[in-house]
Amino acid sequence: MAPNTANGVAPIPLTSSLMAKLKPAKIFKAAVDPAPPPPPGSRVPVQQRHITGLSFDDRGDQLITAAEDETFRLYNCKLGKLTKTLHSKKYGIDLPRFTHKNTAIIYASTKEDDTIRYHSLHDNKYLMYFRGHCQRVISLEMSPVDDGFMSGSMDKTVRLWDLRTPQCRGHLSLPAPSLVAYDATGVVFAVAVNHYGRILMYDHANFDKAPFLTITLEDPTLARVSFPPRAIYMTSIAFSSSGKYLLVGCSGDAHYIIDAFEGHVLAKLEGRVGLERRRLDAQINIEPQRGCSGEEVSWTPDSKYIVGGGLDGRICVWDVQNIPPREGPVDLKLSPVSIQPLVKTDGHPGPARCVRFNPRLVMMASAGAELAFWTPDQTADADEVAKELLRKAGTD
């Protein structure tokens, strides 16, 4: 984990032992308003509402959530309490992202229009509207270094923006809906194009030129399950802190780690139940779908571990510190290394749709029908100390 230069304090380094001790320290059971009851005589079951997105501010002091009840809620991470509930009933809300000020966010609309909104949490006012997409925005990311941000939409475009002006700075027209991610320097960004299994790498200063690298996401092990192999549906992408790796989140039962410099598909994160379905008893279609996947997997700040949720509510922690490197030309016939979870813990009733690690504190947040703050379980250490004291007492 990177040093906290703002406070001059180095956070506790993450270790496998520490990650294995993560337990829900605070659960917010009322983090989403329940759906209204169906009209009398209706046979349509009530669909449980979920949190669909969450974001920490840069300092890790606050967490914002967006939910299917068209609310966004602000939480204090250190106090473990809800501090503010705001509504967006007219436009809906998804993909909340803190700007570099902890008093403002951007988010995508889910109804009325496809505008991106810049919102002040302090006085509950819109600061600016970013219009241009003509279908729903499915990917939204702030630049790590300035006031720029990017969006990907179902309208098959990626747009580049700046908080200081409502006009789009530029856009890419693509053959399918796409996902976006910045590297830690803000110099490079990636665009994942579904249905083609391609990830395009761009120089931010020359985004209007051809990508400098095109990565193909293929997994030969899928041919052992069915033939023809079922396609991979990408739902999120994120660079590691070093920029060396790219985490590709998928709606199926595995995620992937790719060498962001050369394009090798290095590792396959297994042991989870994908969010392509919304219920465990639902059938999987022949054609892969996004489902309710997209926010359930992320890096820890030091990029040593990856945390992720799934349809069964269990939270997985994968140790990715020792991924074997590959050199030379990319060989799509080589199978990625399979990585099983370091630990898999019970999480939520129903799907764990959002999982993020705090950028500064040793805590994690996961969300679905409820919101949970996770911290290392100190009672495990106390039990070990007690056992050691008893052992020593027995030898005296």
TrEMBL record:
Record's signal peptide: none
Location of this chain's protein in the cell: Nucleus
GO MF annotation list: chromatin binding
Highest taxon in the source lineage: Eukaryota
UniProt-listed SMART domains: WD40
SUPFAM superfamilies: WD40 repeat-like (SSF50978)
Record carries keyword Nucleus: yes
Keyword terms: Nucleus, Repeat, Transcription, Transcription regulation, Transcription termination, WD repeat
WD repeats: 130-165, 297-322
GO biological process, one term: DNA-templated transcription termination
UniProt cross-references to Pfam families, sorted A to Z: WD40
Family in the record: Belongs to the WD repeat SWD2 family.
Protein name: WD40-repeat-containing domain protein
Species of origin: Russula ochroleuca
